[in-house]
Design brief:
With 120 residues, this protein is mostly helical. Helix content is 40%, strand content 0%.
């Protein structure tokens, strides 16, 4: 399962199809502030990016932490939040064909999909 078409559409929608690639979705010691002294952004555009990345997390668990991190700042986004979201998009561009692989078994009738969830 992979969503390379959807990921490409996200990059095109937010004008990131020609961006440079990033090797990691977020910087190692990145600290985002809720209310910094930076310029406020359009919350509508920022929320669109975050929603798109959160949807992509269903097949890309490597994005879950970073998408969750930028989700905390949807109410009043500032420039540093947008830069973090754009870095995730640059990472997505470099990993367009990544997804989840479910290997087949010799006897497909006995194949099971098991999932776990933590309610906390």
């Amino acid at each position: 399962m992979y969503q390379s078409k959807y990921a490409s559409d996200i990059l095109r929608k937010f004008n990131m199809q020609e961006c440079n690639l990033a090797k990691t979705p977020i910087e190692t010691a990145m600290m985002l502030e809720k209310d910094g002294n930076e310029e406020a952004l359009s919350a509508t555009m920022y929320r669109g990016i975050v929603r798109s990345l959160r949807y992509l997390c269903s097949t890309r668990s490597d994005l879950a932490f970073s998408a969750g991190l930028i989700s905390r700042y949807m109410k009043n986004p500032i420039v540093s939040h947008l830069l973090a979201a754009k870095r995730i998009m640059r990472y997505v561009k470099g990993t367009l064909n990544w997804g989840k692989l479910f290997p087949t078994q010799k006897d497909d009738k006995n194949a099971k999909l098991i999932r776990y969830s933590d309610a906390d």
